[in-house]
Amino acid sequence: MLAARLKERLAPSHVEVVDESAAHLGHAGQDGTGVGTHFRVRIASPMFAGRSKVACHRLVYDALRDFIARDRGVHALAIETLST
């Protein structure tokens, strides 16, 4: 889901989405299933060229906004961006 949305919105040359939810069982925002609340995104996109780190992260957040806004959606998102 997340990777598909990032590909659609940011045309990345590389995208990797790692579900780290199982490592956060018992933490705030974790729904107890161990799936789908805490993610790490590594993404490289030509859209990041010339932009600050904050601007690149904003593009990622904007692309994933509806996943983050859901009641039981993404709780934590670690982002690593690279320009290509």
Alpha carbon gap, first and last residue: 23 Å
How many helices does DSSP assign? 3
Oligomer: single chain
What radius of gyration results from the CA coordinates? 13 Å
* Strand order, sheet with most strands: 1-2-3
Please summarize the sheet with the most strands: 3 strands, mixed
Overall pLDDT metric: 84
Shape: globular
The assigned structural class equals alpha+beta
Q: How many strand units?
A: 3
Roughly how much helix do the residues carry, as a percent range? 25-40%
- The low-confidence runs, each spanning 5 or more residues with pLDDT under 50, are none
Q: How much of the residues is beta strand, in percent?
A: 25-35%
> What is the N-to-C succession of helices and strands?
HEEHHE
Layout: helices, strands, pairs:
Blueprint (H helix, E strand, L loop, with lengths): L1 H9 L3 E6 L18 E8 L7 H11 L1 H5 L6 E8 L1
Brief summary:
The chain is an alpha+beta fold and 84 residues long. It is built from three helices and three strands.
Note down, in words, how this protein is organized.
The protein has helices at residues 2-10, 53-63, 65-69; strands at residues 14-19, 38-45, 76-83. By secondary structure, it is of the alpha+beta class. The chain has a 3-stranded mixed β-sheet, with helices on one face. The chain is globular and about 35 Å long. The two termini are 23 Å apart.
